[in-house]
Amino acid sequence: MYIGTDYLSSNQRNRLVRGLMATISNQNNSRTQDSKGAVNFDSAMIVHQSDLMNAKI
To answer: What is the pTM of this model?
Structure first.
C-alpha cells in the first residue's frame, strides 16, 4: 500500500507515521501465534511518485 504524503505538512506526516506504527504494532501483538502474515512497516523507506510511475509491473 502506498500513501501519498506530498501535500502533508511535516507535522501531519510525522503524526501519520506514528499512527501507522502504533496501528501495525497493535495488529501484530494481537494476532494469535498460529496466524499467518505479520504486517511490516519501514518508516525510513520513502518512495516518491516518480518512482512508482517508472516502475515496471
So the answer is: 0.69
* Cβ-proximal residues to 3 (8 Å cutoff; 6+ apart), any chain: 16
**Sign of the Cα pseudo-torsion (18, 4, 44, 8, in order):** negative
pLDDT (0 to 100) of residue 22: 94
Residue located via cell numbers 501483538: 29
- 41 and 26 in contact (C-beta within 8 Å)? no
pLDDT category of residue 14 using cuts at 50, 70 and 90 = very high
**Cα–Cα distance list, 48 to 8, 12, 13, 29, 36 (Å):** 14, 17, 14, 30, 30
DSSP symbol at 34? T
